[in-house]
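Complex record, two chains
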Amino acid sequence: MQLVTLKAELADAPTADSFDLIDAPTPTCPEGGMLVRTVYLSLDPYIGSRIRGRHMGEGAPRPGHDPIPGAIVGQVLESKAAGFEKGDWIHSMEGGWQATCALDAAHARKIDANAAPLSAYTGVLGMPGLTAWAGITQLAKVRTGDTVLIDAAAGPVGGTAGQIARIKGASRIVGIAGGPQKCGMVTEQYGFDACIDYKQDGWKDALADALPDGLSVFFENVSGEMAMTALGHAQLYTRGILCGLVAGYQNKERAMHALDMGFIIGKRAQLFGLVVYDYYDRWDAFTAEASDWIKSGKLNFVEDRAEGLANAPALFEKLLGGKHIGKAIVQVTEE
Amino acid sequence: MQLVTLKAELADAPTADSFDLIDAPTPTCPEGGMLVRTVYLSLDPYIGSRIRGRHMGEGAPRPGHDPIPGAIVGQVLESKAAGFEKGDWIHSMEGGWQATCALDAAHARKIDANAAPLSAYTGVLGMPGLTAWAGITQLAKVRTGDTVLIDAAAGPVGGTAGQIARIKGASRIVGIAGGPQKCGMVTEQYGFDACIDYKQDGWKDALADALPDGLSVFFENVSGEMAMTALGHAQLYTRGILCGLVAGYQNKERAMHALDMGFIIGKRAQLFGLVVYDYYDRWDAFTAEASDWIKSGKLNFVEDRAEGLANAPALFEKLLGGKHIGKAIVQVTEE
């Protein structure tokens, strides 16, 4: 079967050339687990950090051998796990960039193929969506009247966070994204009230204009510097979700993303570190609720698709360079 | 009457020589206000920042003219304010370093001279105590089983915070303070389980030993660096109170106290900026509750007293140098 691995240990940020598509033996079905054919593969920025062994203490995959890690949506081919049968659809964070994967039952979550499009389980119903939901509803507890600022707003975390904030009653939602195409998507598809293009001169003035009464919640996906920009527009008692450091995932060195403690005190800010792992036990509940939002048209998503594992590396390079539009996914095979 | 003022605008951290004791006309009783004789004057670290115009946007006092700002406990000499009568005892954040002060009614709060020693209203029942209460009970919401780390633990904020944490059910309370005398006070008078002397070599190892299971709450009074040390011992989901930057109050330049956003995310920390102003409307409720704790011996306090306004500058220099032991107060005149 096909599998994508690293050519060599990474000295620098990965590019499409950092990967090899190789043939590997098809795994066998493990005791207590299952064999799954990969249909959709999710490409996410944290993988850029993880494949260098720098994400949450997890090991890096071995070049020339291990598949690149990644979440998948797939269908059970064979099961030795209670509760899973051949033909079931599952989502797993542990699938990886390979055509067929062997999974422990603990790493697979059954999904409802009728509740939403299957590919949505990689994005708006997947880890990015759960992240957005956790930050907006469980930590910031967005409520009627909030003004919410979200950066990396064209990404699946940011775009979903803004839409959930709207569902929860936020009165104004402002995004930050890179380039007019992304900004247009954020306001048109995701329904934000405004989206500021940080690649434009004078964007900080534009941001101030978009937040005439300041903000009461911010959702930070990019960097410490961006968090400080958000805090600069914060009302007193602002709740800030510290979620991602996308700006640093490609860097060679681990950088410190500094927040100014004096400024946090002066604003009486409340800051919440968010790691989505902590919410995995509530994934099914979230999926059920969010599927209804998708059906009723309150929650939209946009995809940037590649076809086939061979095209995964190029899309991943595009993702790390911020050149993708929407959730980056690879359709590995037909549904 | 006597009044202490700045000799000249401060170019550097103030010392005892930065101040002049001068004679000034006794103020008259303002309409809607009162005239108060100052009995206890509170000396607090934030004043070192405020007299250089660097605290919360408030203006600096004019050299040779304005009294140094400071909280007081005093007795009403004359009143033109509804609800205040001659002989009433009051606490005010706006009294200043002067023998007699004219106060708006909005800046005076009547206190019960029978509920607690009058001097306690400058410390454990005053702004430091309210700060401690707000952080421990309103923001961190300390509960049964918490392990709490508090720095500047020998100060009236830190010492009170630890004792309130104990009252609220914390199972282990560890302090950080400078020198064996302060550390002894923290464990003996304030009842902390341990206090680490940060002036000793190897204090970080001693801190680790004192927190074998990590900490669930920290109360930060000193600096960003100290907050990062606390985070280093944090369990996941630690609540951190960001309250003071005592380490920076004497500095010439405003320094950034940097917190590492990636580290906050990894720990899923919840950080709360605390400014005590926000809790002034709950001061009476706090005082009533805390007076009972004092009476029942659950809440202790230690004072470092000077006698007379002439001795205020020397005690203030001692305070800024961290050489005081207990709440720094000046007894301006007899009760």
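Note: Chain A touches chain B at residues 56, 139, 220, 223-224, 227, 236, 242-245, 248, 254, 256-262, 264-275, 278 (CB under 8 Å).
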